[in-house]
Amino acid sequence: MIRDPRDVIISMLEWIKVMAKSHEADRFLSLSQEKQIKELIEAPDLSMNGGYPFVFDTVLGVKTAITWMQDPSVLVCRFEELVGPQGGGCQWKQKEALKRLAKHLGVFLREEEIQVIAIELFGDTCTFRKGCIGSWKEAFTDEHKALFKQVLGKELITLGYEQDDNW
């Protein structure tokens, strides 16, 4: 499963605000939101992780995802496809992604079962906040965009989230 890493950063930031309880997390949260986003783009000091598995090095995560994408035995599922209309996606793409996933796992699903899964898929997990595509656009400044392009611009294109650096 991959997701636009810019949205991952915003999701991680919001998760830290609500869930992270440590001295390092408090230090991080004392920074302005602009600085928090900058630190997450630059690959944070994971000492703030303190056992929180959802706080991770975005750069490493993206590069690992790209490596996995090269393996023909790996099925790439995009968050943006699975989230469906409730998260700003498309119902048809959601159902097609579920069909691909079921086929990859060797599971036969009837159309009615796919519909039920699609309805039940959105939200209701400990890490769920909003589940919307493109939240980064509301939070990233021009400085964040420039920094992200410098740190992971080529990888963002490789992942298929942008065609070029003109975003």
In words, what does this structure look like?
With 167 residues, the chain is mainly alpha-helical. It has nine helices and no strands. It has helices at 5-19, 23-29, 33-41, 58-69, 79-82, 91-105, 111-120, 136-139, 142-159. The chain is globular, with a radius of gyration of 17 Å. 20% of the residues are buried.
List its salient traits.
mainly alpha, 167 residues, 9 helices, globular
Summarize the model shown.
It is built from 9 helices and no strands. With about 170 residues, it is mainly alpha-helical.
Question: In terms of per-residue confidence, which ranges show pLDDT below 50 for 5 or more consecutive residues?
Answer: 48-54
Order of helices and strands: HHHHHHHHH
Number of strands: 0
Helix content: 55-70%
How large a portion of the residues is in β-strands, by DSSP E? under 5%
Computed structural class: mainly alpha
The tally of helices reads 9
Largest sheet: none
What overall form do the CA principal axes indicate?
globular
Question: Secondary structure elements and their pairing?
Answer:
Elements: H1 5-19, H2 23-29, H3 33-41, H4 58-69, H5 79-82, H6 91-105, H7 111-120, H8 136-139, H9 142-159
Helix pairs in contact: 1-3, 3-9, 4-9, 6-7
